[in-house]
Fold these 2 entries.
Entry 1:
Amino acid sequence: MAIRLPSRLVFHKYQGLGNDFILVDNRHQPQPCLTPEEAAALCNRRFGVGADGVIFLLPGQEGADFSMRLFNSDGSEAEMCGNGIRCLARFLQDLGIPSRDGAYQIHTLAGRIVPRVRPDGLVTVDMGIPRLLAGQIPTTLARPEEKVMRQPLQVAGREWQVTAVSMGNPHCVVFLEGGGSLEELELEKVGPLFEHHPAFPERTNTEFVQVLSPSYLRLRVWERGAGATLACGTGACAALVAAVLEERAEPQATVELPGGHLEVRWDLETQHVWMTGPALPVFSGTTAPEEVLGSQAQQEKS
Ligand code: ZDP
């Protein structure tokens, strides 16, 4: 009798500020070796490996050294990922792949992004130029060629003022003032309502931000496709950009997230946003994606 062995996948778990990812060395082929459903199953923290997303290291494109793709823990695909690309840079270094001064040119669905592993182990990323027009985010909160600043949005029975920024992926930034504190915010309740609000046709990540000083922001994030995470790199960048646009912060600030802090700088001359923070390996292992997916399909039926 022929026995069909479930195929094995080698993976590497990394985290940046507690935003954790399953990294897959997928350099042998241009398409991710997992389906979005398998990736989502592996992200499950009880029936799988556990992660906020799966990141694939793919062959380079358009002159870049490598490409990156990311499936969120719900299986949806994100164009960009700030904490994830720091983890990817550290992974490349761990693989012994030579770099120019620690820097790797990475093709993403949001364009070319360049992370650099510094001698002290922190990773600095040139996150590119934020996109501020409603049509680019995308959101219907303004006309396509207009910026979205301090627009009223009805969510959970009240009006919020929101500023929208794309770091390649969509972000809705909400500054909490006066009445609301970050601790009291019912993130699990309001987060999904922002994520799925019809004003954001591609759904959205949402950052709730407190400006403690012009150079220190605190935030909590509800991520599109991943829910409440301990940190979001693109979200920290989007929050700083929104704070500068609204004249609440200086173009260089510390952004504190539940999992730790990032340094973010918006170079107003080149328009590029720079982000610096940690990225560390956790463990490597092998798994059987088909079986993991099968066990969850079984469980959902019962
Ligand atoms: O845009 C999205 O769907 C995000 N959930 C992608 C992940 C963003 C990330 N947390 C970050 O740090 O930018 C990895």
Entry 2:
Amino acid sequence: MQHFSEKMLTYELMYTIISYRNKGDKMNLTDIKGLGPSGINNLKKVNILTCNDLLSYYPFRYNVLTRSNLDTLEQDEKIIMDGVVYSIPSIYFINRRMDKMTFKLNTGNRLLTVIIFNRAFLKNRLTLNTGVTLIGKYDKKHNTIVASDIRFMLLSGEPKIEPVYHSITGFSYKKISDLCFQILEKDEVVDFVPSYFVQKYHLMDKNVALKNVHNPLNIDNLKASVNRLKYEELFIFMLKMTYLKNKKGSICGIKRDISYDSVKEFMDNLPFKLTVDQIVSVQQIYEDMVSEKAMNRLVQGDVGSGKTIVAICAMYINYLSGYQSAMMAPTEILAIQHYETVKKIFAKYDIKVEIITGKTKMSEKRKIYTALVNGDINIIIGTHALITEKIEYKNLGLVITDEQHRFGVHQRGNLKNKGITPDILYMSATPIPRTYALTVYGDMDVSNIKTMPNGRKMVQTFLKSDKEMKDVLMMMYSQLRENHQIYVVAPLIEDSEKSDFESINDLYEKMNRAFGHKYKIGILHGKLKNNEKEAIMNDFKNNDIQILVATTVIEVGVDVSNATMIVIFDAYRFGLSTLHQLRGRVGRNDLQSYCLLVSNRETKRLNVLVETNDGFKISEEDFLIRGSGDLFGIKQSGDMVFKLSDLRKDYKLLLKAKEDSELFLKENLISQEDSKFKELMKQCVNLD
Ligand code: ADP
Ligand code: MG
């Protein structure tokens, strides 16, 4: 995950620059009135070290206090009401921990009873005719407010908006917003939106926006202010991404002199007809490869969408122009699978393909190394050892990596070979939402394969509850009878959680009881040694095992085309994208395949899988439901955490920020900017 840390570093540095600049000659936390050493210490605990940190400690929510209309309010509806205390509060101690206070409130035209628990300590302040605002539930039947909060200020006609912050010891919400106000009164905050865009969009002053966010006056202003700050946040982020992308794109690569006709001829001679998306992807790759820029492209598409053949076309282009290709898979099993595919496709050509795995004997390895240096091998396939081990190539022109292993700048440097920068192609079977792609993959070009090869039957998906176990077993049996194989997935293996769901061993036992007399059942989990795992996978591949009970370690991308069913237990424990990935293990030929999701919970969410097989759509849904958190198997890294923006909602703003950052860098608008921005960009440039 080098790539992420690289981005993270630069992003954090940018923030450091920003906070540094904001600190500079300006206000420090110690300069704030009403903030002593213990307050500063408490702020430190939530990572607020500078005034700027405090200003960007944004409220995560607002309470909008609008006086309720008693006539339209229903029983038990939320109520916000102001008035004056009309009767001296009486207190009743329910027990040592709990008290109940009651008084009458005069709202101007009505008298209401107020009940509030555990606020006996306020009694002395609630003298007759004191103005208060009550927030709570309206018990219409009894003309009573059951209050959850009481405030000593009256609502004016305007709705009052109160910022709500994540709590800080010793600080009320009010205090945080007061401190921010104080800073903003004295300090001029640095605005990183170029003045060109500030003018173009008539953006409000940043100080004003920050004031509105911490002390909002009305909703329209607040919205505009939040948007303005979001825009800046996204702009800075996209500027960095665009910068990185341009930088990678400007690396001089190999300018190949190959006609598209020769590529087309190759495609026409493949054992099957490529899908439109596959052809478009190959075209895009071709354009990249004949241009003088180094390719940095991602091909994303569902499992089984046919990415491998696209990669093979790239290898062919590379071969025609006289260069060597390296293809890397995340596991040995996959490397072997790719090797077999590639060899078969290139059998008619004078192309030498080799593979290096952990099992390759040293003597054999040496031979391969020599052949690579001499240029006797055209294509080498293996795991990531291909780049980490210092293998030398005669003229490495293309590196393909399967499943999201990405290179950092340094690793890329390793790939350089005698001054040549190879083209790079990534393949990912984890389609991700558009927004997310712009940020995670913002520094790459992306090709999408959205359709499955023709003739492929859609995997049929069924949702079953634990009570329908008999059904599930029957459906499994009918596949076994056809001589087909089945994956059974259990979520976790820790015994501690066993009470919660079926552990893999339980599941194994269960399968054994049901089918053990007739069929062979294997078990695969993360605690097995590599060679044990491989032995079991091989048995499954050879149909020596009919049911494979596994945790999610089922190798990504493993292709056992005779497996026509996957049964996933406690499916609610998985994200939709993960389930979709797992489902991709089956349906890998023209047999009808099935996916059974066994779950007693969250069936509504899981229904998305029953309804669609489109990985892009599913990832969008997953994203909307769960956010980017632990989606897509990509750990959320520091650089993806936006303080204000929510990629689920701010897609349009993100697009705008992207366009603007591109324009900004292209038109070299920097030169028109004041020194602060030049400095920021200079820091960017120096970073990599
Ligand atoms: P993935 O995108 O998961 O890497 P693969 O490249 O392994 O998918 O393709 C899955 C299967 O589909 C392979 O057996 C491959 O030969 C086959 N395939 C790929 N493209 C086509 C096509 N256009 N028509 C028919 N079969 C195809
Ligand atoms: Mg693949």
